[in-house]
C-alpha cells in the first residue's frame, strides 16, 4: 500500500476543511449573485467528486489506478498531502481551543431568556415552499425560538455620563413574505421591551420587495430614547436599495451607511458611523479632521454588517463595533461548533463578544434567515449595557 493510504483519513478531513473555507470566503465576498452561486455549486461538486477522483487516480489505491488507467498518481498524491497539511493545522487549532471560547474580558455579565414564537408562524407555513416546510420539521430546529439576551460590556473610554447606556441590537431580519408580518411585529414588541437608549440594525433587512410596504408600520414602531440607526447588508441588494432607504427614513430610522455623524447623548458627544463593505462602498470616511478636539476624543461606535470589518474599526479607533451577517453559523455541531459561516475571520468570530484592542465587537446571530434552519443556534435579540472599567471593577469585587 502507498503511504497516502495511511494519510487518507487526515486527507479527507483536510479536503472538507479546505472547501468549506472556500465556501465561507465566497459568501463573505462581494460579487454578483449568479457568480456566487456558481462558485458555491462548483465547491459543492468538488466536495463530492474529488474523493472519488483521489481513489480512482491511485493516490489511495495503486491497484485501482492500474486497473482503470486513471490520472497520474503524483497529482492526486500531491493534493492529498496538501489536504493532510490543512487537516493537521486545523486539528492543532481545534486542540488549542478545547474547553470552549475563553471569556472576553470586556464582557462583564450576560443573561438570556428564550421566547418561543412558533405560534406566530403556524398558520402561515402554507406560504412556504416544500423544501422550507421540510426544513422547519427537522428535529431540533430552533428557527422560531428567539433568545433575548442582555450583555454588560466594558468600554475603556466610556465617559461617566454614558454609564449604563442601553443599546437594542437587531440584525439580519430578512423580511420575506414567507414569514408572517406578525412574527416581525412580535420582534418589535420585544425590542421595545428592552427600554433602550439607542436601537440599531446591522444589515440584511430585506429578502423580498413585497415586504417593503411593511416597514413604516413594523419597524416604524420601534422606540428608543435617542434614536434608531441602521445600515444595509448583502441581502438588501435583492431589492431597490434607494427605495429601501427611503422607506426606512419615512419609518424614522437614521441611515449610517457609508457615513458618520456626531450626536449628543446625556450631555456628551458620541460618534456613530456605518460600514457596509464589501457590498456598499465606501465606508464612513474617518481619515479627515472630524471637526474638533471634542469630537476626535468622543466615544466611537460603528455599525458593520460583517465582523470582517474589525480591522477597519481598529484602524480608526472605534470603541465598539456592532455586527451581524454570520447567523452564528445557523447549524452548530456538538463539540465542533459552526462549520459553514460567511466570514473571512476565524469561526470564533461568528457570534458573541470579543475584545481586540482598542475595539470591542458584538456579533449577533440575527433574527431570521433565508433558509429556515437553525440547529444549536437560535436567533437572538441583544440588549447591550455599556459599563466603565470603574463600574466593572466594583462589580467584580462584589461578586468575588
How would you portray this structure in words?
The structure is a single chain. The protein is an alpha/beta fold and 400 residues long. It has 2 domains: 3-96, no CATH class; 107-395, Metallo-dependent phosphatases (Purple Acid Phosphatase, chain A, domain 2). It contains 11 helices and 15 strands. It has helices spanning 3-27, 33-57, 62-68, 73-96, 130-136, 181-192, 215-218, 241-250, 293-296, 310-315, 389-399; strands spanning 107-116, 145-154, 166-170, 198-202, 228-231, 253-255, 260-265, 268-275, 299-304, 320-323, 332-333, 337-338, 352-356, 359-363, 380-387. The strands form 3 sheets. The protein has a 7-stranded mixed sheet with strand order 1-2-15-3-4-5-6. A 6-stranded mixed sheet has the order 7-8-9-10-14-13. A two-stranded antiparallel sheet has the order 11-12. It is globular and about 70 Å long.
Structural class: alpha/beta
Distance between the termini: 60 Å
Helix fraction by DSSP (H/I, runs of at least 4): 25-40%
The averaged pLDDT comes out at 87
Q: Supply the CATH superfamily name of the largest domain.
A: Metallo-dependent phosphatases
Percent strand: 15-25%
Question: Which helices and strands occur, and which strands form pairs?
Answer:
Elements: H1 3-27, H2 33-57, H3 62-68, H4 73-96, E1 107-116, H5 130-136, E2 145-154, E3 166-170, H6 181-192, E4 198-202, H7 215-218, E5 228-231, H8 241-250, E6 253-255, E7 260-265, E8 268-275, H9 293-296, E9 299-304, H10 310-315, E10 320-323, E11 332-333, E12 337-338, E13 352-356, E14 359-363, E15 380-387, H11 389-399
Parallel strand pairs: 2-15, 3-4, 4-5, 5-6, 8-9, 9-10, 10-14
Antiparallel strand pairs: 1-2, 3-15, 7-8, 11-12, 13-14
Helix pairs in contact: 1-2, 1-4
Amino acid at each position: 500500500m502507498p503511504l497516502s493510504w495511511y494519510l487518507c483519513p487526515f486527507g479527507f478531513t483536510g479536503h472538507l476543511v479546505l472547501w468549506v473555507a472556500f465556501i465561507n470566503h465566497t459568501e463573505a465576498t462581494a460579487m454578483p449573485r449568479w457568480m456566487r452561486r456558481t462558485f458555491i455549486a462548483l465547491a459543492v461538486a468538488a466536495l463530492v467528486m474529488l474523493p472519488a477522483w483521489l481513489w480512482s487516480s491511485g493516490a489511495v489505491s495503486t491497484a485501482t489506478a492500474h486497473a482503470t488507467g486513471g490520472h497520474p498518481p503524483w497529482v492526486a498524491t500531491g493534493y492529498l498531502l496538501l489536504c493532510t497539511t490543512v487537516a493537521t493545522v486545523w486539528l492543532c487549532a481545534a486542540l488549542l481551543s478545547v474547553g470552549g471560547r475563553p471569556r472576553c474580558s470586556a464582557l462583564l455579565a450576560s443573561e438570556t431568556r428564550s421566547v418561543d414564537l412558533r405560534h406566530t408562524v403556524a398558520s402561515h407555513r402554507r406560504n412556504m415552499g416544500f423544501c422550507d416546510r421540510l426544513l422547519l420539521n427537522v428535529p431540533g430546529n430552533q428557527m422560531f425560538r428567539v433568545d433575548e439576551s442582555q450583555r454588560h460590556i466594558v468600554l475603556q473610554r466610556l465617559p461617566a455620563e454614558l454609564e449604563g447606556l442601553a443599546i437594542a441590537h437587531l440584525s439580519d431580519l430578512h423580511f420575506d413574505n414567507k414569514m408572517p408580518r406578525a412574527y416581525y411585529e412580535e420582534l418589535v414588541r420585544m425590542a421595545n421591551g428592552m427600554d433602550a437608549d439607542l436601537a440599531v440594525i446591522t444589515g440584511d433587512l430585506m429578502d423580498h420587495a413585497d415586504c417593503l410596504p411593511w416597514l413604516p408600520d413594523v419597524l416604524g414602531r420601534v422606540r428608543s430614547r435617542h434614536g434608531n440607526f441602521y445600515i444595509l447588508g448583502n441581502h438588501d441588494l435583492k431589492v431597490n436599495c434607494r427605495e429601501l432607504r427611503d422607506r426606512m427614513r419615512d419609518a424614522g430610522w437614521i441611515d449610517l451607511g457609508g457615513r458618520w455623524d456626531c450626536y449628543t447623548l446625556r450631555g456628551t458627544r458620541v460618534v456613530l458611523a456605518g460600514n457596509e463593505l464589501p457590498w456598499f462602498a465606501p465606508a464612513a470616511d474617518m481619515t479627515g479632521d472630524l471637526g474638533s478636539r471634542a469630537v476626535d476624543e468622543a466615544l466611537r461606535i460603528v455599525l458593520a454588517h460583517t465582523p470582517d470589518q474589525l480591522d477597519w474599526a481598529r484602524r480608526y479607533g472605534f470603541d465598539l463595533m456592532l455586527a451581524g451577517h454570520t447567523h452564528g453559523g445557523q447549524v452548530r455541531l456538538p463539540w465542533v461548533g459552526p462549520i459553514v459561516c460567511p466570514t473571512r475571520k476565524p469561526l470564533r468570530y461568528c457570534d458573541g463578544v470579543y475584545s481586540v484592542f482598542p475595539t470591542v465587537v458584538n456579533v449577533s446571530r440575527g433574527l431570521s434567515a433565508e433558509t429556515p434552519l437553525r440547529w444549536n443556534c437560535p436567533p437572538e435579540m441583544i440588549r447591550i449595557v455599556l459599563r466603565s472599567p470603574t463600574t466593572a471593577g466594583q462589580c467584580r469585587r462584589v461578586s468575588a
